[in-house]
TrEMBL record, chain A:
InterPro entries, A to Z: VWF_A (IPR002035), vWFA_dom_sf (IPR036465)
Chain ranges of the VWFA domain: 36-226
Lineage top rank: taxon: Bacteria
Membrane-spanning ranges: none
UniProt-recorded name of the protein: VWFA domain-containing protein
Source organism of the structure: Candidatus Lloydbacteria bacterium RIFCSPHIGHO2_02_FULL_54_17
């Protein structure tokens, strides 16, 4: 009887509220430990002025992770978010090893719609909790780090703030993921900086960073910050806690 | 190569992995981990080996590593296809002496046990000189364990047999001088799915018999019914608060079998033991071969290899 699998060994998973994600089939993972990495990028209409730089940033951020000494222990998921998508997010790819990812193939964002920030955080963290639990149950050690990059505040989500708070709270108990770092990065957010700061605090995210304007230089800095933070969080795996080396600013 | 539909045969796929950890007593007394393990597997064969360096010897962490590396190298260098224990052991013996001399190891540095399994679809064997535990799991879930011990925890090391300095004689003297004294013991246990452990047998052998080592042969039929063979140093019997047989079972309870599956299982088991304040007092090394059997047949199916159930 033929085995039914997705072509690249990925498996579909369901979260609450009709959210879904995909991830590498665990039986195909050979290492003892993994850091789950999620990068969620705002694709609402307001990023149209800098979508080229946004894509370049994403390619650089994920591509740079390949140089990390922990590159074999990273499973990366990339999302775009906009309320044009069902559930507010579209998965560019689910959790998969870096070796199977070609950032050059990432599609150009197609800006439009509003900003479902709760959906983005809920999908990012919820998927890490769910997949992290499966990894834990099968003897793998795992931690996580999520980056949500946005230029605007929440205004269109299906997921509610209590849903987001519950997932974030679950992620830091140490019972599923050894540790979890969630970072909200604001770009071009002069008008909503305070709003995003409040959002991250209310949700229980690890930190909010206001990166500044949406220039190519700023976005290049974000890319470096993401890859450095991923490497650092992965190197902390096994210590029992999150990385203490992640910078507070970009 | 394709075969006609009426020829059904089973293909065997081997996976192997190993891991070793330092024991609590070695941490306490500032000793290195003196156990070591290695594994290898491909389509045609699998081999796993563990070695336990004598804690009152010299630099026996080196002796244990020399034992495992040379055993694996010996198997790689010999032709494949159900190698005999004698050919492996003879080649290993020559290589070991040369390597120990090259490295400038003293005899006390080379005191380390040897326990390995070599498996091919047509058969294989487990060989032990020293002490340790052998586990075999059948396809129906039955697990069989054999535990080998020497009185006073003074095992006969392969280096004694390799020695030209009369160490075999000194070994007998250390055990009281009577080569017929039955000081080498073996106990064999069986556990069927859903039932308790049953002691199948136990025996005590003489020093002179024990010094020859223990060889357990597997023919093709035995390979057909086997799903796993694992070897452990005696550290697996030193887990505080856990019966050694249950410790073995826990270490064979693989959740996934890709990559470093033995390492993942041992690491998690140690964490679970540790929650109750338990853990191995002695160093622990383990290595396992998993055998996947896949019945295939049909005119359009290409058979990959191996043990034919129909001659």
């Amino acid at each position: 009887m033929p085995r039914i699998t997705t072509p690249d060994g990925m498996k579909d998973h369901k979260l609450g509220g009709n959210f879904t994600f995909t991830a590498k089939r665990i039986e195909h993972l050979g290492a003892t430990e993994y850091t789950l990495v999620t990068v969620a990028v705002d694709e609402s209409g307001s990023v149209s002025g800098f979508m080229d730089q946004l894509l370049a940033m994403l390619k650089e951020a994920v591509g740079s992770c390949k140089a990390s000494p922990r590159s074999d222990n990273l499973l990366v998921r990339v999302l775009y978010f906009s309320d044009r998508y069902r559930g507010g997010v579209t998965e560019i790819h689910g959790f998969k090893p870096l070796a199977e990812i070609d950032p050059a193939q990432y599609p150009m964002p197609n800006p439009g719609g509003w900003t479902p920030l709760c959906d983005a955080v809920y999908s990012a963290v919820g998927a890490m909790n769910k997949y992290g639990k499966e990894l834990y149950d099968r003897d793998y050690l795992a931690n996580g780090i999520a980056f949500v990059i946005t230029d605007g505040g929440e205004n269109a989500s299906v997921a509610t703030m209590p849903m987001v708070k519950a997932e974030l709270a679950k992620s830091v108990t140490g019972e599923i993921l050894e540790s979890m770092v969630s970072i909200l990065i604001g770009v071009n957010t002069a008008s909503c900086k305070d709003h995003l700061d409040r959002f991250s605090k209310e949700a229980g995210m690890t930190q909010f960073i206001d990166a500044g304007d949406a220039s190519a230089k700023t976005l290049a800095k974000i890319a470096k910050f993401v890859s450095r933070s991923v490497s650092s969080q992965s190197q902390s795996l096994g210590t029992g806690g999150p990385s203490k080396q992640i910078a507070a600013t970009i | 190569m394709c075969r006609p539909f009426f020829l059904k045969e089973s293909t065997m796929k081997f996976r192997a992995d190993h891991h070793f950890v330092i024991g609590g007593d070695h941490v306490t007394y500032g000793k290195p981990c003196q156990d070591h393990a290695l594994s290898q597997a491909d389509d045609g064969m699998a081999a796993v080996v563990v070695s336990d360096g004598c804690s009152s010897g010299g630099e026996t962490d080196m002796g244990a590593r020399l034992t495992t590396f040379l055993l694996m190298q010996t198997i790689r260098e010999l032709d494949k296809g159900n190698l005999g224990q004698e050919s492996i052991f003879a080649s290993r013996h020559a290589a070991f002496s040369a390597a120990a001399t090259l490295l400038g190891l003293r005899e006390t540095d080379t005191l380390a046990t040897l326990l390995y399994a070599y498996l091919a679809p047509s058969g294989g064997h487990v060989y032990l000189q020293g002490d340790g535990v052998v586990a075999r799991e059948l396809r129906d879930g039955t697990v069989m364990l054999s535990r080998f011990d020497w009185a006073n925890n003074m095992p006969f090391y392969p280096a004694y047999a390799d020695s030209v300095n009369g160490n075999s004689e000194r070994f007998v003297l250390a055990h009281g001088g009577d080569p017929s004294a039955r000081l080498f013991t073996a106990e064999h246990w069986v556990r069927s799915p859903g039932s308790l452990w049953t002691k199948a047998s136990e025996e005590a052998s003489s020093l002179q018999d024990g010094m020859k080592g223990v060889s357990i042969a597997f023919d093709a039929a035995a390979m057909e019914e086997t799903s796993a063979v694992a070897v452990f140093t005696d550290g697996v019997t030193s887990v505080s608060g856990v019966d050694w047989k249950d410790a073995v079972l826990r270490l064979l309870d693989f959740k996934t079998t890709e990559g470093a599956f033995m390492k993942r299982r041992l690491s998690r088991a140690l964490k679970e033991f540790g929650k109750d304040g338990n853990g191995p007092r002695d160093d622990l090394a383990c290595a396992v071969v998993l055998i996947a059997h896949d019945k295939k047949g049909g005119t359009d199916e290409c058979i990959e290899t191996t043990a034919e159930t129909l001659a």
